[in-house]
Amino acid sequence: MTKIKSKYDLFRQKTQIILYGTNTFLGRMFDLVLLGLILLSVLLVMMDTVEGINHKYHTQLLICEWIITVFFTIEFILRIISIQKPIKYIFSFYGIIDLMAILPMYLSIFFPATNVLTIVRVLRFFRLFKILHIPQISQQSIQLREAMEASKEKILVFIYFVVISAIIIGSLMYVVEGKESGFTSIPMGIYWAIVTLTTVGYGDISPASPLGQFLASLVMIMGYGIIAVPTGIVTAEFAKSSLKSNSISTKKKCSKCHSQVHFDNAKYCYECGETLPD
Amino acid sequence: MTKIKSKYDLFRQKTQIILYGTNTFLGRMFDLVLLGLILLSVLLVMMDTVEGINHKYHTQLLICEWIITVFFTIEFILRIISIQKPIKYIFSFYGIIDLMAILPMYLSIFFPATNVLTIVRVLRFFRLFKILHIPQISQQSIQLREAMEASKEKILVFIYFVVISAIIIGSLMYVVEGKESGFTSIPMGIYWAIVTLTTVGYGDISPASPLGQFLASLVMIMGYGIIAVPTGIVTAEFAKSSLKSNSISTKKKCSKCHSQVHFDNAKYCYECGETLPD
Amino acid sequence: MTKIKSKYDLFRQKTQIILYGTNTFLGRMFDLVLLGLILLSVLLVMMDTVEGINHKYHTQLLICEWIITVFFTIEFILRIISIQKPIKYIFSFYGIIDLMAILPMYLSIFFPATNVLTIVRVLRFFRLFKILHIPQISQQSIQLREAMEASKEKILVFIYFVVISAIIIGSLMYVVEGKESGFTSIPMGIYWAIVTLTTVGYGDISPASPLGQFLASLVMIMGYGIIAVPTGIVTAEFAKSSLKSNSISTKKKCSKCHSQVHFDNAKYCYECGETLPD
Amino acid sequence: MTKIKSKYDLFRQKTQIILYGTNTFLGRMFDLVLLGLILLSVLLVMMDTVEGINHKYHTQLLICEWIITVFFTIEFILRIISIQKPIKYIFSFYGIIDLMAILPMYLSIFFPATNVLTIVRVLRFFRLFKILHIPQISQQSIQLREAMEASKEKILVFIYFVVISAIIIGSLMYVVEGKESGFTSIPMGIYWAIVTLTTVGYGDISPASPLGQFLASLVMIMGYGIIAVPTGIVTAEFAKSSLKSNSISTKKKCSKCHSQVHFDNAKYCYECGETLPD
């Protein structure tokens, strides 16, 4: 009895190393296979929505879908078995996403309604975020994330200002333009204001009256100046962090001539030739 | 008689603390309720313009509208009563806006014309600016405002240059394209030029002749280089203020000459030579 | 005879001071009047192209037009008379523009063809550039111009790269998309590529085939990275010039402790309290 | 026999100097002629696709096309003859491009199918990249290329993030909007997401339902903040390289340890303490 339990424990241990570890060969291989299957499953859902492809290859898509679902199901069960705190995993973000990845196919046996199914299947796409955690990419994106986090607060205040501006501009345009030129309600006007301020400019709604076009011109020129703000915030943050990592600093000081600005790796003072402290 | 007056004075005093103060519990609560009601009233005006919602919930919207109007009316009267200089308040920006927030409903009893009414009701949205004065957001937005104010003059000169360019480009395009492709007048051409230079690009008017498309291409590439300018101005300002806060600060203050801006590692005042505190 | 000549000389001298000078009261007044009349004449040409206004106020517009033309004619003649080298002025940029401003009305007596006339009248708009030379604005725009001139060469190389990219992308899209979806020729494809790379995006031509939309997506993401380049160039230039004008430099050096980085207006060394040289 | 061979060798040598060299007068002249002919051939292919021009000048275009093809053929043969390693050249990027430039006309004798031909002819445009190697432009573009290469990795991570975002946003919009408003499949939704995130905004597909427009507004505001990131990266890189070239340079070189990067005002090598030249 103990033997069987220890065998099961060994199996659990091995599974955990393969599923969660990235240092062993099998662990790395598994990560790559999983990565490929996630991308494939995303591609399958995409293809499924293209009418031409769906008509021609319906059976092939369905078979692929079932194979992937079975693989993901086994992976999900193994994860639950091998982890220390299975309950915590199941209700974590990735636990729910992993369940989302397998549920749709089993649900499709009972519910033939395609639209609801598609919504659940699309949620599977969030597994893509797992790929973001590949170490190589993570390492390079640290500086990116730091600069964005440092400027997060200012950007939020800025977005708050843009949203209030959009509400007021959208309402004014609704009053000025009226229903004939697409501004059917104030929310529609706000949608137009955001489309314009962000310089996207679909053109599905656009001012038709001279006054409306004049106001729109003012909004666009305002948006022109405004778009500089988030860029300025992020850039200043990048420049700061990249100057910090720059090789000049005032950390070292020459004991003879007291000059203070040196290369970080300088051994001698550039001014008097004196040996610098480490 | 004096007793009644003092009671009234006490009431005025209490009201003032609640309406204008933010330090007491009641004052803070009142601010939150007011914030919620302003957002609700804005939402109500929005919903009112959506045809589907208006048809279904006309009575409910009207009732909500009246409740809010009554609350705003009481608030407006209390503000006039409790403030020291009521005349100054009534003719101030927020005084007029606060009046705007309650007028439309009372006017709607006498004037059934919906369009004029909507214009006045939308003016109520400017109360949203009051929300901008919430201390937490104000604190964070100081650096934003400073950087924008420092670059204001340069951005104005830049906008002035863009407007003159838009006038000349718009006129040329009117001559080149003519009335068939939407360039019905020079103001229309200028509207197109602004839509293009700001990279909004609705597509409601777009060049159709080969020469017009060639000129438009030149304008777009020009606009490509031009959009960099406001960004450059604002970014340089941000970078400057964030570099300044790096090695220079106002932490140290000279006790002799009261100069406040020093290097962080300064030991002596650069102005008078006095020893600085650590 | 000499008397008359000297009277004429005096008249010339006085005229010159008024027309070209900006220091006397009359000179400044004349500049303001001219500025107003140029703006008015531009407004008149604009109004003239708007059909509704033209129909209603045709006679009034014509009268205003003639009054301005007569004023500009007198100004032009006085300029030729009062200047030292009249030939040089006539064939200079502003000389030709000034002539352009008065010619259309006189030509309209002989040629009733409106289209040719409008072209010449629009050229008058270049007089607006004269307004750019108002001293107040010029002073503020110097830094702007310097930063743009410093980054001119790099932006030209960048535009050159964008144009070649647009040619290759436009040709590929012409081959991929074909005539059905608006890509009627390679120049049309290049026009589309520029509209897309600059993120203007009119939507008058847009890819319809899956392959075309895939290529377009690549182009847009490429353009996303590319738009950062001119901004980066200009911003770096602004930051450089604004750091230069910053108040810290290595110009002053303490004779006692040899520390080198000081405020430009520092009188004492922040390190040792020694008096600094000017 | 040896004489003939040496004559052939002399011819090869001379040809090589003209074709590959840029220091002799003939070499430079040849480069200019080649440049002109490449531009002309590109122009010819363009003109050929414009229906109006093709109809009118079909024969003239064909003659020009043949003249250029014959010139390019002779050039191609001479290049193969004169170069040391002809096989390496033929299979190099420029070798294949050079062959592409002449093949279409010879193929047109046997295959009259115009569409396939156009594709091959357009590939000739890649010869334009050769123009990029003109020394004057190359010199100015070095700093540009360096800054872009330095920020390449970060921009790739950023684009990777944008693509994953586009996939998830596009899928959600497909589910929300459905087929009526143009979101016919998930790939179509992704195409829309890229068009929106990059602020191009064609408007060929745009959300029509209130929920879709609300989601689109969120995406646009998100894209607003996102567009700042590549700009920030490139700008920080430019600013860094331009600050570096300010006070630090490679003008001085240590004669002892051969380190090259020093402060402009350095007197001693920071690495080994050796005296530096002025």
From TrEMBL, chains A, B, C, D:
Q: Which SUPFAM superfamilies does the record match to this protein? A: Voltage-gated potassium channels
Can you supply one Gene Ontology CC term for this chain's record? Answer: voltage-gated potassium channel complex
Biological processes annotated in GO: action potential
Q: Where is the Ion transport domain?
A: 28-242
Q: Where in the cell is it found?
A: Membrane
- Supply the alphabetized keyword list: Ion channel, Ion transport, Membrane, Potassium, Potassium channel, Potassium transport, Transmembrane, Transmembrane helix, Transport, Voltage-gated channel
* Origin superkingdom: Bacteria
One Pfam family hit: Ion_trans
Task: Give the transmembrane region(s).
Answer: 29-47, 59-78, 90-110, 155-176, 182-202, 214-236
Coiled-coil regions listed in the entry: none
Q: Which InterPro entries match?
A: Ion_trans_dom, VG_K_chnl, Volt_channel_dom_sf
The membrane-topology field of this record reads: Multi-pass membrane protein
Q: What is its main location?
A: membrane
Q: Which GO terms describe its molecular function?
A: voltage-gated potassium channel activity
Q: Please report the name of this protein according to its UniProt entry.
A: Ion transporter
